[in-house]
Design brief:
Helix content of chain A: 40-55%
Helix content of chain B: over 70%
CATH superfamily of the largest domain in chain B: MetI-like
Strand content of chain B: under 5%
Largest sheet of chain B: none
Strand content of chain A: 5-15%
Largest sheet of chain A: 6 strands, mixed
Order of helices and strands of chain B: HHHHHHHHHHHHHH
Oligomer: heterotrimer
Chains: A alpha/beta, B mainly alpha, C mainly alpha
Radius of gyration of chain B: 27 Å
CATH architecture of the largest domain in chain B: Orthogonal Bundle
Number of domains of chain A: 2
CATH architecture of the largest domain in chain A: 3-Layer(aba) Sandwich
Chain lengths: 442, 305, 309
């Protein structure tokens, strides 16, 4: 009798003593943190798909939508990696995944079947997602974006004398004559004309992703790379000098406070009608549809200009990663596989209004981009094709260095120092070298 | 005697024109005082007023970029949305529990400690009092990194998840409030005349009885002031929750508003301002009703011990 | 009555001294028990982490190796570090100077008006200090927004250029100091007001009769009487402002190009957001010398005040 009671008491005491120790018997519960989508309503579709899966698999699912504004997503990722507790699955844009590769669960068993089923992924995605031979995260649909130009048709016609809908039309191939001339130099001329007309281009030069991505494309187009694939510092080159000189010329036609712009600033710039062009995915257009339809009617998304080394378009792939400390990896794998099926992908892309670009090649054969309106065909040229090269800002540097380059925005800081800061070219390059050396710290 | 009465007479005679000029000076000083006070009140109250104005706007009106200082189509939609949003209410609840428990723990620690330090001179009491004061000089911005690491380490070794749970803030908040509250209480307790407790001692009262029956009632204004201070500090803390909690349902208001309301929807400022205003409401309301205690507590350092 | 009490006491303690000894011993134990929670809290949540920070700062980035002072020497080579040092000091010193001056001025104005009206003015003026900074700084953030700033709207209405409040480094620093002064000046006001009230009115009257003007009254009466409170508030505020996090984090996040970073925000960026805890601990430890410096001054002042009192 007393023996049973003692056992009962000790068992309940044990149960009460550590209420917040998560045991593996909490199977059937999963906490996911997804990136808070810029397109209004896109999150709801993701929630719906996840809840469908959770009801079917009988999993107790908790979803958080984490914004990238104010570095909140970055903070969550790094904080959870260090604390070894938090969500089970997190959205990992661009370098966040490679930066935490030691803490991420290998997911080859999820990704390889998807590649077999839906085709290969772009080189950029594999470059990021496959570290040291295995996949550290699943290429995600939700959030994967390109940040090419999104501009005002009317302003370009009026002030730049360029018909965007003819250069990159909706139904057919691009106009070779016009696209051959669409280079960073003509971009500069267009920027000057729009600036003088009172509708400057809005290219951010701050420290957030939008700014770092577009600056990375400009640098890559001139052949300027800060660190090479082997990890050697290559910032001190003629190409870098060319790129910086170009940026100096460009900055004089931009609003004066671009150096403090965050990811929302260029959206606001375009939606308010103040700007003629921004480098952004279609989120600005989607919000303008709701808040300023007159502007939305005139927006056209198309590829970046061509530079001496090619037509580099800034891309930002997203991944879904499972933490090694997750207590329910089986459920996590199942959910990610479910979200990557064709049915789910199609719904996600539709709900995002064409913002999301699936990574697997056969999943990209969707008509949505040609169909969304107004204006009709506005996103027809959004998914990367033709002579475009998807640029990952920071590539080809090794992941630990590139992560720091990206989050510390070395490239835009260089531009800011050279232009707004008025520092000499050599001083700026020396500073960048010193910073990059610091990133080699182990 | 004659001189005595004559002098005031002469002096007051001489003082009359001076009094008049002094009165004129005083009136001029008064006018200028009011002028400057009005200017400063405008400076100080403009941001909260602007918060209120923006909170009554729809996102369409904000994006239309009309006069930002006036509401053309006022709406309570932002308030309705927030007050029915389970996320926001979770923030509010977390903040309330954290703050109230923080106050309780702070008082439970501070009052006995202040009593002991102000009345009972024991070995090391002076050093301890100074030490309490000194810890106030170690800011939370110095401690958040080692604390983060300590909590992570404890999680690895004991399995208890300290990080990412709002209740762990109750462990760290006393560090922000206890030193100052103890200091306030010591000041108040020291000003209670010693005869009171000596009389009680003679009557055979124990120290605990002295504390509860004499000190607490007499120093009640100071205790209320300390409680208000503790509440305000716990409610407003931003760094610790930002560093230690990441999941949405564990956030408290300051962090919740700044990190989840400011998101991709670029014209969400109506809701952000509403959230900020509602989040600032509890300390403001407490302040409005208990202003005198609040101020007395702050100035306890200026005038008392 | 005293005799009776004294006799009674003598009777109770005179027998063999042990009740008194017992009482003294009990008193120490009780006193110790009463202060135990305080000691525990301070020890575990303040003192231990502070020392632990020193230990952390001597580890390498992945916290696996002991590297001694390598982190410190690494920081000394970082240009950003010296920028942060400079910015923190300028920010703290100028903000405190302005807060003290403005607080002092406003305290005088409130003190001048009739006592009945003082309460409501005081009430209105303290609001910035009562509001949680995380909320009020959001209001400032919206007021300074690059595209929708309400201030710029007013400026443009009078045909002036819009100001890039948070985009230009100098304006951004100005904005940070402005917001800090906005939040902190009321505190100074309330402290100085209380101190002003404790200056005896007769001193001013006597001075007025002697023909002193307001400047002389200020210099010879007010300031000397308030010297202690001014010193205490300035030193306290230096410490708190120097260690400030909320304002910079929410308003500029350290930008543009790291030109508004202070120790706390930079430590957060490096330590937590860039996964380098030892370096972050190292950065925040640099606050220590300044804090210790200020602490010594405060302590000296307190003990002097204690002697005077």
């Amino acid at each position: 009798m007393s023996f049973d009671r003692r056992r009962f008491l000790s068992a309940s005491a044990a149960a009460l003593a550590v209420p917040y120790v998560r045991t593996s018997h909490a199977a059937g519960s999963l906490a996911v943190g997804f990136w808070d989508h810029w397109v209004p309503g896109a999150n709801d579709m993701l929630t719906k798909l996840c809840n469908e899966w959770a009801a079917r698999e009988k999993v107790d699912l908790k979803i958080d939508y984490i914004t990238s504004q104010g570095n909140k997503l970055l903070l969550t990722v790094t904080s959870e990696a260090q604390a070894k507790s938090g969500h089970d699955i997190l959205s990992l844009p661009i370098w966040y995944g490679p930066g935490q590769m030691a803490s991420l669960e290998p997911v080859d068993d999820v990704v390889q079947p998807l590649i077999a089923q839906y085709g290969a992924v772009p080189a950029a995605v594999e470059y990021l997602g496959k570290q040291e031979g295995h996949w550290i995260a699943v290429p995600a649909t939700a959030g994967s974006q390109m940040k090419g130009p999104c501009a005002r048709i009317d302003l370009f016609k009026q002030h730049v004398d360029l018909d965007l809908t003819r250069m990159y039309p909706a139904g057919g191939p691009p106009d070779k004559g016009l696209t051959d001339k669409w280079s960073w130099d003509t971009f500069l001329l267009a920027a000057e004309k729009c600036f003088k007309a009172g509708f400057p281009f809005g290219i951010g030069m701050g420290q957030t992703a939008d700014s770092v991505d577009s600056a990375g494309a400009i640098f890559a187009a001139h052949g300027a790379y800060l660190v090479d694939a082997k990890g050697s510092i290559t910032v001190n080159s003629d190409a870098t000098r060319q790129a910086l000189e170009y940026c100096k010329k460009l900055v004089q036609f931009l609003p004066p406070d671009v150096f403090a712009w965050d990811d929302a600033s260029n959206n606001k710039w375009l939606i308010s009608g103040k700007g003629a062009l921004i480098m952004n995915p279609p989120s600005a257009w989607a919000v303008a549809k709701r808040d300023n339809p007159k502007v939305a009617d005139q927006l056209w998304t198309f590829p970046s200009p061509k530079g001496p080394k090619g037509r580099f378009n800034p891309g930002l792939p997203f991944f879904w990663g499972i933490w090694k400390f997750s207590k329910n990896k089986a459920a996590a794998r199942s959910l990610l596989a479910h979200l990557s099926q064709r049915a789910a992908v199609e719904q996600l892309v539709t709900a995002s209004g064409g913002f999301d670009i699936p990574s697997f090649s056969r999943l990209r054969e969707m008509k949505i981009w040609a169909e969304v309106s107004p204006p009709k065909g506005t996103l027809a040229n959004y998914p990367p094709r033709g002579d475009q090269i998807v640029n990952i800002s920071g590539a080809p540097a090794p992941a630990p260095i590139a992560t720091q380059m990206y989050t510390q925005a070395t490239i835009t800081k260089m531009i800011a120092k050279f232009t707004q800061g008025g520092e000499a070219m050599d001083k700026v390059i020396a500073w960048a070298s010193s910073e990059l050396e610091g990133f080699m710290r182990a | 005697m004659i001189v005595g009465t004559a002098v005031p007479a002469i002096a007051s005679g001489a003082r009359e024109p001076r009094k008049a000029s002094m009165r004129r000076d005083r009136r001029r000083a008064l006018v200028w005082s009011y002028v400057f006070l009005i200017i400063f009140v405008i400076f100080f109250l403009t941001p909260p007023l602007y918060m209120l104005i923006t909170s009554l706007k729809t996102s369409a009106e904000i994006s239309a970029a009309t006069n930002p200082w006036w509401v053309f189509n006022p709406t309570l939609q932002n308030y309705a949305e927030l007050l029915t949003s389970s996320t926001y209410l979770t923030f509010f609840r977390n903040s309330a529990v954290v703050a109230l428990l923080g106050v309780a723990i702070t008082m439970l620690v501070s009052i006995p400690a202040a009593f002991a330090l102000s009345r009972m001179k024991f070995w090391g009491s002076a050093a301890l009092a100074t030490g309490v004061f000194l810890t106030y000089l170690i800011p939370n911005t110095l401690l958040f990194i080692p604390l983060f690491r300590i909590f992570a380490f404890l999680h690895e070794t004991t399995g208890i998840e300290f990080l990412n749970h709002w209740w762990m803030l109750i462990i760290v908040h006393p560090m922000l409030t206890v030193p100052f509250c103890t200091w306030i209480m010591i000041g108040y307790f020291a000003s209670i005349p010693k005869e009171l407790d000596e009389a009680a001692l003679i009557d055979g009262a124990g120290y605990l009885q002295i504390l509860t029956n004499i000190f607490i009632p007499v120093a009640l204004p100071g205790i209320i002031a300390a409680m208000i201070f503790a509440f305000t500090v716990c409610w407003a803390d931003f760094l610790y929750p930002l560093a230690f909690t990441t999941s949405t349902d564990q956030l408290v208001l300051p962090v919740g508003i700044v990190t989840t309301l400011i998101k991709g929807d670029v014209f969400n400022w109506g809701q952000i301002m509403t959230g900020a205003l509602l989040g600032a409401a509890p300390p403001l309301i407490i302040y409005a009703f208990l202003m005198d205690y609040y101020i007395a507590g702050l100035t306890a350092g200026a005038t008392k011990g | 009555m005293n005799h009776a009490v004294a006799d009674g006491m003598r009777v109770s303690t005179g027998r063999n001294g042990s009740p008194l000894k017992k009482r003294l011993r009990r008193k120490s134990t009780i006193a110790f028990v009463m202060t135990l929670p305080l000691i525990l809290i301070i020890g575990s949540v303040v003192v231990y982490p502070a020392f632990y920070a020193f230990y952390l700062a001597t580890l390498n980035k992945s916290m696996e190796r002991f590297v001694g002072l390598a982190n410190f020497s690494f920081l000394f080579t970082r240009e950003t570090f010296w920028m942060v040092v400079k910015q923190s000091i300028i920010f703290a010193v100028s903000a405190v100077v302005f807060k003290a001056l403005i607080g002092f001025m406003i305290a005088h104005f409130v003190h001048n008006i009739p006592a009945r009206g003082q309460r409501k003015w005081r009430g209105m003026l303290l609001v910035p200090w009562v509001m949680p900074p995380a909320m009020s700084v959001l209001a400032w953030l919206w007021l300074f927004d690059p595209s929708y700033s309400a201030f710029n709207w007013l400026l443009q209405k009078v045909d002036m250029d819009a100001v890039p409040w948070l985009g230009n480094p100098y304006w951004a620093r100005f904005a940070i100091i402005l917001v800090n002064v906005w939040i902190g000046a009321p505190f100074f006001m309330i402290m100085y007001l209380a101190a002003l009230k404790s200056v005896p009115e007769q001193l001013y009257e006597a001075a007025a009769i002697d023909g002193a003007n307001w400047w002389q009254k200020m210099w010879f009466i007010t300031l000397p009487m308030m010297r202690n409170i001014i010193a205490i508030t300035v030193l306290f505020s230096l410490i708190v402002t120097f260690a400030n996090f909320d304002i910079v984090r929410i308003l500029t996040s350290g930008g543009p190009v790291d030109q508004t970073h202070v120790f706390a925000t930079w430590a957060f960026r490096i330590g937590i957001e860039s996964n380098d805890i030892p370096l972050g601990a190292c950065v925040s430890l640099f606050m220590f010398p300044i804090l210790a410096f200020a602490a010594i001054f405060i302590l000296r002042d307190i003990s002097r005040r204690g002697v005077e009192a």
